[in-house]
Write a structure and sequence with these properties.
mainly alpha
Length: 172
């Protein structure tokens, strides 16, 4: 059971994001077939495909944080000695963490306002508090994954400069 939970923790975002991308691709393909071959498009498929895409983007951003593959200008940072590299990465991560927490808080405020309003999607009439929930969830996951990187640094000595592959080898 512990191994299963550990695998889920390590791959949660990629499983869900992958499934959402698959659903989105199937829905878009079906929409094209229905529209151009049968001249009878679905009214609902575009809306669900958009929700799948947006949710997949936010979950994939969290996945990129976990894998340490988010966009960074590492060529510039690698020009400096290791201690300065670590200081630059840590400083940029702290700024990023502050921004993520700020956006998370703003997403919570948005979500609270959506719980007080009746705002539905045009076709499926889905209450928009549910699709918008991904903003708060996505930034919460990104913040958690970033804190997890520093937890592994302090607990296991895995530097934020090390690749994900080296970090996994060190933990195993």
């Amino acid at each position: 059971m512990r191994k299963w939970l550990q695998r889920l923790e390590c791959h949660l975002e990629e499983y869900i994001a992958g499934m959402l991308l698959l659903i989105m691709a199937i829905l878009v393909f079906l929409q094209v077939v229905m529209r151009y071959l049968f001249h009878s498009p679905f009214s609902w498929s575009d809306e669900i495909a958009i929700y799948c895409m947006v949710w997949s983007v936010y979950l994939s951003a969290s996945w990129a944080v976990r894998e340490r593959k988010h966009i960074r200008v590492m060529n510039f940072i690698h020009l400096f000695p290791k201690k300065i590299q670590l200081a630059l990465i840590t400083m940029s991560d702290l700024i990023w963490l502050a921004c993520s927490l700020f956006i998370f808080w703003q997403a919570i405020l948005l979500e609270r306002s959506l719980w007080n309003l009746q705002y539905e999607s045009p076709v499926l009439e889905i209450d928009q508090k549910w699709p918008y929930l991904i903003i708060a969830l996505g930034f919460a996951l990104m913040t958690f994954r970033q804190l997890q990187i520093y937890y592994h640094w302090f607990r296991h000595g895995i530097s934020p400069l090390e690749s994900k592959e080296h970090a996994v080898e060190t933990l195993v």
